[in-house]
Amino acid sequence: MRTETSDPLAVDERERRRNPLRRMIGLAWPRGGRFALGVLLGAAATGSGVALLGVAAWMLATAANHPSITALSAAVVATRALGVSKGVTRYLERLVTHDAAFRTLAEVRVRVYERLARTEAFGRFRSGDLVSRLVNDTEATLDLLVRGLTPPLVSVVTGGATVLFLTVVYLPGGLLLASGLLLAGLAVPLAAAALGKGPGQREAQARGRLSTALVDTLQGAPDLVAYGAMDRQVERVYEADAELTRVARRDAATLGLSAGATALITGLTVWGALFLGVLAVEDGVIGPTALAVLVLTTLAAFEIVAPLPAVAAKLGSIRSSGERLFGVLDTPPAVAPPAKEGLEIDPEADATVRVRDLRVRYGPEEPWALDGVDLEIPAGATVAVVGPSGAGKSTLASVLLRLRDPDGGRVEIGGVSVTDYPADEVRRVVSGVPQDPHVFASTLRENLRLAKPGAQDEELWTALRRARLAGEVEAMPKGLDTQVGSHGLGLSGGMRQRLALARAVLAAPRVLVLDEPTAHLDPDTRDAVVADLLDAARGFSTLLITHDLTGLDRVDRIYVIREGRVCQSGTHGELLAREGWFRGVCER
């Protein structure tokens, strides 16, 4: 039964409701010291740029009065020092912040993969959309930390210091600069964020739709061509691409308006500083040298806030990506960790499997897929579970293989509930073939060695012979080194199924679960494979899940499941002698 456990990836409801941007920044909290150092280095780099132009203005204005070279030596040294420090501190700032951001990104990716490994990811997300979440939405964390976190903090530090300096030089000039920086660094970014919120949210969604359409087109190309639907599917791809292009244009327009507004504010502020400075010189409040410093420092100061409108315009997209990212991280696991980690199944313990009052459903409002199932697989025995499609047979296999937790009841191995063990520990003892096994884009040898990495070729050939696939592999020019193609498209459907069977046999588990192992095989091969599988499974606790009644006279016991419940059980002969679903199907 599902219970509350100490899931290290779990988050409470209060955390789920937090702003996605704040949650994304929170992911970088362990490296807060590095980001703080990066902000200081960035402030030093930006401040060096502003100070460089200010010192240069002072030096040029002073030089117009033809002073001695000694009077200018300090300014010359300062100019060189600021030029060097600007480049050095900028490099160090990028090094520190990017290092911290990439380490955070790597940690986020690990968390995403850990979460997906414990959920039915491909049942909850479409494959193309999942790829977009794994790549684009995860990398949005990097954009936020590098472009959305450091520049605003640098602007606050450097802008405040620059305004303070100009206030000392000439109070009205400092106040004017403060007003200009607030407009360019706060008002314009806020407007850009408001204008970019809608397009930003649509951009992440449009990118996910385009990725989904492309993946569906590529993976389903044979069927689309066969049914003449390729043109319609390609049109869907074009429509998704057009939507993303429209959103990108709207985003570009926002960035253009922001850049124009910033340039306008910069020009007006500089002209205002020049006007006030000229009046101050005429009144004798400041000298010509201070005027030059005032104007050029004001011009340089807007370099501080230049990145902010572009960052603000992207916040909508980053926020939407954050929502999609946390949509993955907040997905509850299909298999909860045990209350106590580190437990191992005794390899010498009894391998009897007992299912007691098992209940499973796929949602709170969904009907029960399994509703009180009771069955037993004695150690070393072979038990078959049969029934019509939709009866819950594959759900039972998912629970035994620890791909789902029970919602009620227990599944025991050797008298201990499987939920008391880590999922990987159970899968070390319980193995099998799912209804639609995955074949990796590699060689036959490497696909087989997934079950036993150190297996020698003779062991591989033995497994292939048991699955009745050795003859076909021997006929291939490269034998075990034959590339099977993406998703095993280089093999026929029956060959892919038999490859998965061979992989399961090679793993030699104590409990073998076979979920529709002959679904893609022709009748003659099917009979032979069932016979070979039952021979190969001798000595193991074996559960054969099938809707095909071939070879069931060789199993020890048969359970008939209908509508999530066991309606009949007994030996092959007992069920044939009794009125019911099994006998009716056999007669038909």
UniProtKB/TrEMBL annotation:
Q: Which residues form a coiled coil?
A: none
Topology within the bilayer? Multi-pass membrane protein
- Residue stretches making up the ABC transmembrane type-1 domain: 36-317
One annotated GO biological process: cell redox homeostasis
Per the record, the domain of life is Bacteria
Keywords attached to this entry: ATP-binding, Cell membrane, Membrane, Nucleotide-binding, Transmembrane, Transmembrane helix, Transport
Annotated compartments = Cell membrane
What cellular component GO annotations does this protein have?
plasma membrane
SMART domains this protein is in?
AAA
Entries under InterPro entries matching the protein: AAA+_ATPase (IPR003593), ABC1_TM_dom (IPR011527), ABC1_TM_sf (IPR036640), ABC_CydC/D (IPR014223), ABC_transporter-like_ATP-bd (IPR003439), ABC_transporter-like_CS (IPR017871), P-loop_NTPase (IPR027417), Type_1_exporter (IPR039421)
Q: What GO annotations for molecular function exist for this entry?
A: ABC-type transporter activity; ATP binding; ATP hydrolysis activity; ATPase-coupled lipid transmembrane transporter activity
- Give the stretches traversing the membrane: 35-60, 153-171, 177-195, 255-279, 285-311
Can you give the residue ranges of the ABC transporter domain? 353-588
Task: List the NCBIfam families hit by this protein, alphabetically.
Answer: CydC
Q: What family is this?
A: Belongs to the ABC transporter superfamily. Lipid exporter (TC 3.A.1.106) family.
Q: What is this protein called?
A: ATP-binding cassette subfamily C protein CydC
